[in-house]
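Supplementary notes for students who missed Thursday's class. We covered one full example, reproduced here. Read the sequence, then the structure, then the short commentary at the end.
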Amino acid sequence: MYVGVTSELSERVHDHKTHRYPRSFTARYKVHKLVYYEAYHSIEEAIAREKQLKAGSRKKKQALINAFNPEWRDLYDDLE
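Structure (token representation):
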């Protein structure tokens, strides 16, 4: 699983899907499906939440995704 912060979600997901950065975590581990996201008004809030999520267990992340997107459907096409 990958957790990150961006101001341009659709562009960032596109970068991951196309392996724009071939040596990145997402390219190496073939992480290319957007299954969960949250929106914030400030970068400070977003970074604080990112740190909170990264500190959590995989099990907690899975529970969060299951509540938001039980089918683990790729949400990329729903953006914009």
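Commentary. The CA atoms of residues 35 and 74 lie 5 Å apart. The chain has a mean pLDDT of 95. If anything here is unclear, bring it to office hours.
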